[in-house]
Amino acid sequence: MDTIDDFLTFLSARSYSPDTIKAYRSDLQLFRAFLIEIGKRPEGLHANDISHFENWVSARPGRKQSTRSAVTSTARRLACLSSYYAYLSAMCDGAIINPVQLLKRPRKAKRKPEAIDRNTWERLINGVSSPRDKAILATFVASGLRLSELRLLNRDTIRVEVVETAAGRRVLGVGTVLGKGSKERLVIIDEPTVRLIGCYLDGRHDSNCALFLSNRGTRISNRNLQALLYRWCSRLGVPRLHVHMLRHTYAQTLVDNGISSIALKELLGHDSFSTTQGYFQVRPAQLCASYFAAMEKPPERS
Fold first, then answer.
1. Is pTM beyond 0.70 here?
2. Which residue in 127, 156, 208, 268 has its CB near the most CB atoms, within 10 A?
3. Three-state SS for 299?
4. Cβ atoms 212, 150 nearer than 8 A
5. Cα distance between residue 51 and residue 132, in whole Å
């Protein structure tokens, strides 16, 4: 069963994200334990064995999950196994059939992006006293970066530029990051956030290339980033927020101010428009504004 380790090495060589590889490793470790228990090898499995594996995972102690998280976990495991079998098939010139293809995949209900309302955000950002934490939270909302993308920012990732716009000169922070699938994309942050980052860096007296450091002086971790948001929410009496909500807030702010779906797709680094379109749902307030704007317009005379 060393093919599992070979497959994970293959994913690393193909520049899959560390988070994806970590999730796949966890799923395949369960799969390996299942194979040992039933005394079979991967190439000897059929679709009913894969169904048996899912039931085996669900019955394990401590696996209680909500319906939504269970569906998400199942969908991810099946995607992992399907990729694994595609790899095995390629390694033996198609002699191994992918048993996952014969199974019906669970459909995940699409969750609407949940942005933070303006009052909650202002209460949070104004209440944060740590220059580092304030700069981190502001950068999330000003850039729309994912957790892993912000963590990997370096001091020289963002450069300050003066840009001529129709509204006059603007100072912006501009850079590039590698997103999902190692796709490079542009990142832009506004002047107030550039100033917050500068304020944080002014208090740094080290040569570490990482933009944001942990309290131990090392590059900040994904866990630390989420923990600091939870900590400030608790201190300030703000409802518990997840880091990804900051990305949703960035996207919704741009949509509310008239950005096109094409531009937003590029800024967020989405693979498809269907994901981006989730932010373009007409809300009641927008319907009312459009209604009154239309009703107040005098009718054209023939």
1. no
2. 268
3. coil
4. yes
5. 48
